[in-house]
Design a protein that fits this description.
The chain is α/β, with parallel strands linked by helices and 434 residues long. The chain has helices at residues 17-28, 70-82, 88-100, 153-157, 169-172, 244-264, 298-302, 368-374, 377-397, 406-418; strands at 2-7, 10-13, 33-36, 105-108, 112-118, 124-131, 136-141, 144-147, 162-163, 187-188, 191-195, 233-234, 273-278, 289-290, 310-314, 318-320, 334-336, 342-345, 357-359. It binds flavin-adenine dinucleotide.
């Protein structure tokens, strides 16, 4: 192993949509950024190796006024022009190109954040990274760190307060909280299938699960079989991090079991269809949530609570799934719809006890219930853009997130609005805007 040290003003762990947008946003504010991603491509759950599509506050068109602007829209528009065939690999490249266009971002792919060391004031001073494909071990120092790993790995290594599992109704007064326990939503594996035009046989592996009748898959409709089903979900009763091997194996057995059901058990119109691709890296819905000065709750969302420090918005339903996943006799998802979009405060996007740590995406400071809504990819991207600007302000002002005062927050909001971002109830005060 070669040991190397790198330094940047802002260091971001995790290159899903949240981390990607945070990096671009911080760089466009003039910051020197390192973006560290453990996979060979950007995009996280939306990348070609997982293939979940990005939706957001507009609820896939149900709330057209609520669609995110800013960096995620810029990349979606680019994709609409250059990738009408919707190739997932081309989406990866559009994300990477957008990052590489920013000269002040150093992108480290195939690099995992594995440790953090703290300064005497409890800030993160440096992080350790493993980069086996170049036989390197890196030490990366920075002023501000952003955790977009989805697992809150950087935060956990730094000793940040976090929560995993479901709160009880007494904790935050959430009427629909189902805990307290440590259960989460499960992971899924997706597939892509193709109509070959003539009958194709399918022999499942011997270890595939058996779903011999439709009653074995209650409430789980097949609809469009071109894409695999999000409800092939499992692992919510296990440890979402430490039990990943077991979760992957069981999900593969379920995926082949469902495909076997479609092909060989009943008429599902699948006679001519063949699997062209299937995932082997489980798509994670839920893991650690790092805790900030504010924990966004079901009530905040349902009451459309106004936050003076709102910096992003969400609008997807509170969409939670039974931890037993595919083996649950219940419906595979349960939805609670707010009347309109809601604001996400900056105080839910930085750690309450590690002073120079922001977070965005799946590991933002939310209850399990609120995360049921904020977890969708474009909402994570909007949070990422917001923390990118806030982190760059901290670098400019030589301050920590908790030092940002009302005036600073107003200036962050105005910068975000100038960059085509949307924040509920915050008006663009730029005099050149008519
Ligand atoms: C099956 C499924 C279906 C879904 N359907 C939808 C949908 O239809 N629409 C929608 O918008 N959302 C959907 N979601 C939710 C959405 O995909 C995710 O919540 C969203 O992608 C989260 O974005 P993120 O950037 O926070 O995290 P992720 O996309 O998980 O990205 C985090 C990235 O960080 C990397 N990473 C982790 N640890 C480290 C480390 N230590 N060092 C470096 N990098 C690290 C990971 O490899 C990953 O690439 C679905 C999720 C699942 C699982």
């Amino acid at each position: 192993m070669t040991r190397r040290s790198l330094q940047a003003e802002i260091v971001i762990a995790g290159g899903g949509l949240a981390g990607t947008c945070a990096a671009i946003s911080a760089a466009r504010c003039g910051a020197d950024v390192i973006l560290i991603q453990d996979r060979p491509m950007l995009g996280g759950n939306t990348s070609s190796e997982v293939r979940v599509h990005a939706t957001g506050a507009d609820c896939s068109g149900g709330r057209p006024h609520a669609r995110e602007g800013g960096i995620i829209e810029e990349m979606r528009l680019e994709e609409a022009v250059r990738n009408p065939q919707r190739s997932n690999s081309m989406w990866d490249i559009i994300l990477e190109e957008t990052v590489r266009r920013e000269e002040s971002i150093r992108l480290l792919l195939n690099t995992s954040v594995v440790s953090a060391s703290l300064t005497s004031s409890g800030c993160i001073g440096a992080i350790g990274c493993a980069r086996p494909w170049t036989e390197e071990e890196l030490t990366v120092t920075g002023e501000i760190f952003i955790d977009c790993t989805g697992d809150g790995t950087l935060g956990a290594e730094a000793g940040a307060d976090f929560r995993m599992g479901r709160e009880g109704p007494d904790e935050h007064g959430e009427p629909h909280a189902e805990g307290p326990d440590d259960k989460t939503m499960g992971c899924s594996l997706m597939w892509i299938a193709e109509d070959t035009g003539s009958p194709v046989e399918f022999t499942p592996p011997s270890w595939a699960r058996k779903f011999e009748s439709d009653e074995d898959l209650p409430f789980r409709g097949h609809g469009e079989i071109r894409h695999g089903h999000w409800w092939i979900e499992w692992g919510g009763e296990l440890d979402m991090i430490k039990d990943q091997d077991h979760i992957r194996q069981e999900l593969l057995a379920c995926l082949f079991g469902v495909w076997d059901h479609l092909k060989n058990h009943g008429d599902h119109g699948a006679e001519n269809w063949a699997l062209r691709w299937f995932g082997v890296l489980p798509a994670k819905r839920e893991s650690r949530r790092l805790l900030g000065p504010h924990i966004l709750t079901e009530n905040d969302i349902m009451e459309l609570r106004e936050f003076p420090d709102a910096v992003a918005h969400g609008g997807w339903s509170i969409d939670t799934h039974p931890p037993k996943g595919i083996y649950s006799p219940e419906r595979p998802s349960w939805h609670l719809h707010s009347d309109d979009v809601y604001g996400i405060p900056l105080r839910s996007l930085y750690s309450r006890n590690v002073p120079n740590l922001f977070m965005a995406g799946r590991c933002a400071s939310c209850t399990h219930m609120a995360m049921g809504s904020t977890r969708v990819a474009a909402t994570g991207a909007a949070m990422g853009q917001a923390v990118g600007v806030a982190a760059a302000r901290c670098v400019d002002f030589l301050c920590l997130p908790e030092d940002l005062n009302e005036e600073d927050v107003a200036s962050i909001q105005q910068q975000l609005l100038r960059d085509d971002h949307f924040i509920p109830n915050v008006r663009n005060e730029d005099p050149s805007v008519v």
